Structure formats: structure tokens, C-alpha cells
Amino acid sequence: MTTLTTPDRIRAQRTPHRPDSTRAARRAFVAPLIVFLALMSAVPTIFSLVTSLTDYKVGADTPVHFVGLANYVRVVTSPEMLATYGRTFLVVVIALPFELIVGYLIAKVFHRVHELRGSSLIRTVYLLPVMLPEIVVGLLFGYIMNTRVGVLGFLLSAAGLPAPDWLGDPRIAIFSIMMIVVWQWTPLATVILYGGLLGIPGEVREAAALDGAGRIRSVFSLEVPMMRKVIGLIALLAGVQLIGTFATVLVTTQGGPGTTTTVLSYEIYRQAFVFFNTGYGSAIAIITLVIVILLSQLLVRFAFKED
Amino acid sequence: MAVTFVEEVGRSSGKHPRGGRRLRARGRRRLSDAMFWLLAALLALPSVLPLLWLLSTAFKNYIETQVVPPVVVPFSLDLENFSSIFTPQIMGYFTNSVIVTACVLVLVLVLALPAAYGLARLNVRKAKDLQFWIISLRMLPPMAVVVPVYMMFSFIGLNGSLVSIICMSTMMNASFATWLFSTFFEQVPEETEEAAQLDGLGRFQTLVRISIPLARTGILTVMGFVFVFAWNELPFALVLSGQLTQTFTVFLSTFTSTNALINYGQMAAACVLYITPVIVVTALMQRQLAAGLSFGAVK
Predict the structure, then answer these.
(1) Which of A19, A121, A139 sits opposite B1 (nearest CB)?
(2) Residue B50, phi-psi category: left (phi > 0), alpha (psi -120 to 50), beta (remainder)
(3) A137: which residues sit within 8 A by CB, 6+ positions away?
(4) Where in chain A is the domain with CATH 1.10.3720.10?
């Protein structure tokens, strides 16, 4: 032992019982995944970066020209594109707080009954929409919200209420899309918040109650600070989910009426694979990826940081 | 459920024949328990009612899907919708989904399991940074990812093949799985692994014979999620599949509601058929759902 040089000793202390964690073992375990992921993310990105500087159209025989940053300029100056970003932003800033607040209220109810029999089954049933394919949810609500044969309109008129054209009225179609998305994803926020509530020790609650904290006080001065990470995690997962909204739009409104429900992911699909504006579509995709990577890096580190 | 609950209320309040005031307080507590239980059940109702509507629609004949007021329970129990799906072509789409999902499950196990173990146990330099990079791949919007990928695959001539869909789905799911597998391996007591190595097991044998069996509940849960995510996947399959390689979700996307002649009964039957495995897996994973969906941040 006394013959160990300083770096060896440090290593020996740090890894006291890991005799054969050699570099070769590490490589053999970790390298295949890293190589695969790097290939699948870096190579396409290079392809896309190059294409975004051209007027390339998939499937067209026209010669390809280098157009510099023209596609990017078009993305940030086109009123249609800015409206698409705005619409996506609107979906996030309305649906995300809704999912958090309603999710929190429902989580409180579930937490109140968490020791009672049957509560686990109730939670599972409540959570089912999260596990379903987005496309099935979209198809189902397309039927339910149909003006002619949909059951939602029928129930509303039976109750003497006006039944709007959920998916056909340009003023409300985007909110109908939000309703569908929120129906599917609020349960995700709920279960994560419920887990957070379970993680607050009973003694802490009692101490707060002894200090005279009322119900409302204890929400803001106890639960919110203690669930800081959990809330960050929901913001991350729900934000990513909302920006990625695609299948719901594809099978209900196809971006219409007009372009009133054309959100970002749907616009990328339309430009790149319906109109075959591959160069332009690539530019939109790259700008979107940069925005999402910056936002999610912030949130990933915040939400998963070790204490 | 309600019946067992009521029985329990009666039984346990009868078990404590103590002083009047206390009993009354207990009774009040029981009553408020019952109220909140009912409230919780009511809150779960909006999640399940549309799904019951889907189920009922699957058994309606064409007229019943089109009439107002709508038919709630289709007593005709028409199986025509289901039999109209069991054509060789549509079952081919179903088979494609099965192939894609099976391959993704195997690839994720082969790639993510050793990598997660390595990141958790083998002192990889900058392991945390690597993990953050891996998990952030899962956070990218699929439609933005698939544009570059489409061009790469068309360059090497793999567009329209199941291989391209499998690769992309594996990428998304391996990143999710690696993150969660690592958290499970970190929970395996290090002493157990050391004892195994003192007994002469190598790193790989320790992984296979000690760590994987000890972390098996967690591993199974993750595989359950990978199954659901790969099974449900649409954007990659929609863009990367060809005529013969459509998965079932791509087939479902042809029932768009802008199409006025859509046969809702057939659509519902196809949906019911496709989500049945998902519901079975969800039921099996009941206890682990929260942990999996929060990427291990919530127990």
C-alpha cells in the first residue's frame, strides 16, 4: 500500500473494489450504443445541414442549386412560418399550465385516497390515454367531435347548449386540438405530481401545520418548493410532447381549416413530404431542433440534477 | 370495487367500539374517505368513457354509426367490422408492426442493457454528460428528426424498408431505456457484485448472472414501455415506410376525418384490435407506470 503513487492511491480510494474495470471492458459495454446513437444523429444532421443550403426537392429531376442561407431567411421572414411558430407557442403556453394545474388538483385527490382500496386501479384507468397511440386518440375524437354524427355535439344540443363545429370552425379548431392533447396528456402530469406528493414526508407536513400554515399556504411554501424538480420534469416532458404534436392534427384537421391548426411538426411534414420542399423543410427542421435542444438542455439538467 | 370498499368501512368502524366522540370522528373520517374515493373514480371517468365509445362503435353496423341520436349499446353486435379488417393486406400491416416492435425490443436490450451497466458501474469518464446527451435524444420532436434521417436513408437506399423504421425507433427507445436501466443498476448493491467477482466471475458474467436477475422487475418494466412506444410510433413509420412496409399505425392514418365517407365502425374495430396489447401491457405494469413515465424521477 505504501508504495502506491499519489494518482494510484486516489484511484484506489475512488474504486476500491473494481479490479477489472479496464478500458477494454468499458469500451465493449458502452461503445456499441454510443456509436449507434452517434451515427443515427450526426450523419443525418450533416445531410440535413447540406440540403438546407440548397433548393433540393426529393424525387424531382431538376438540377440542384446552392442557395446559401436563403431557406433560413425564408423561415424567419415568412409570415406563414412565423404564424406557425406562434401557433405552436400558443399550444404550449395554454396546454402546459392547464396540464400542470388540473394535473395537480387531480393528484391531490388521488393522494387523499392513496391508502384506500381500489385507488391503484382508479389511477391506472385514469392513466390509460397516455399509453395509447396518438393516432388512435385523434381518430376517436375526430368521430366524437364530428358535427354530423359526433356524440359530443349530440349531448350538447340535448342539454340545450350550442354545439360548435369543433374541428371545422377556424376560430376554435386549434382549441379543439388542444382539448384532445390535454385529454391525453394531463394524466401524465398527474401521476408524476402524485409521485411527488407521496415523496413529501408526513413529518414535514405536520411541522408546517404546527407552524400554522393553512391549506393554501402549504401549497405554495411547502409543496411547490419541494416538488421543484418534479414540476421541471413535467414542463420538460409535456413541452416536448406539445411541440411534437403531429398525429392528432394529421387525422382530425390536416392543418385546416385554412392553416389555423398547422402547428410546427405538421408544417415540417407538409413542407418536406407533401410539397417536397426538402431544402426548406430541412431548414425548418434544423431551426426547430436547435430551439428544442437549447430548451431541453436547460430543463434536463434542472429536472434530473443530483441534489 | 365500491362493494368491497363499503364492506371495509363497516368492518373497521365496528372493530373499535370506543368512546362516542372518537367513534363519531372516525365515522366522519370514513365518510369523507368515501366521498374522496367517489370523486377520484369520477375524475377517472373522462379517461375511460371515450374508450368505451370506441369499443361500442367497433360493434356497430354502418347505419348505427351514422344515426342521430347515437346508438349507445349496439345490440346487433355486428362483427362485420372486425371481419373486414382480417384481409391479407391489412394483416400484413399488422405483421409489419409486430416485426418492427420485436426487432426494436431485441436491439434495445442488446445495445442499452450493457451500456447502462457500463455507465452505472464501470467509471466511464464523463458518464453523467454522456447520459444527458443520450436522454436528450429522446426529447427531440420526431418530425424534426425524421427529415434529416429520410435523406440519409434515401442516400443509402434503405428508404421504404422496415430497417429504417426499426433503426429510428431503436434510437428513441434505447436512449429512454439506457437512462432507466442505469438507475436500476445503481440500486443493485455493489457488495453483491464484488462478492461475485471475488468468486471469479468476469464483468460480463456478473452482469448476466447477478445484476440482470436482481434488476429484473425494473428491466421488464422498461421493456414494457419500449413495447408500447415502438408499437404506437407513427411519424417515423409514416415517412420512412413504403407501400409494402406500412405499419398498422400508418394504415390507421388513412382514416382521416376530413374524408366524409369514412367507415367509423371499421375504423373503431381497427383501433380496438391495435390497442388491445397496449392495454394488456399497461394492466401488467400497473405498479411501475409512474416510475417509468417519469424517467425514474418518481418512485
Answers:
(1) A121
(2) alpha
(3) A129, A180, A183, A184, A248
(4) 79-304
pLDDT at residue A7 is higher than 60: no
User: Any idea where the domains of chain B sit in the sequence?
Assistant: 2-47, 82-293
Cβ-nearest to B51 among A128, A254, A281: A128
Q: What is the tens place of the pLDDT at every residue in B204-223?
A: 888 888 888 888 888 998 99
The ipTM (two decimal places) reads: 0.86
How far apart are the C-alpha atoms of B58 and B288, rounded to whole Å? 30
Please identify, in words, the CATH class of the domain defined by A79-304. mainly alpha
CB contact under 8 A, B48 and A29: no
Given B66, B69, B111, which is nearest A32 (Cβ)?
Answer: B111
Residue of A14, A17, A114, A131 to mutate, testing the B interface (most B Cβ within 10 Å of its Cβ): A131
- Contacts of A62 by beta carbon, 8 Å cutoff, 6+ apart: none
Q: Report the CATH number of the B82-293 domain.
A: 1.10.3720.10
User: CA of B185, closest CA in chain A: separation in Å?
Assistant: 14
pLDDT of A279 higher than 90: no
The pLDDT-based confidence of B107 (bands split at 50, 70, 90) is: very high
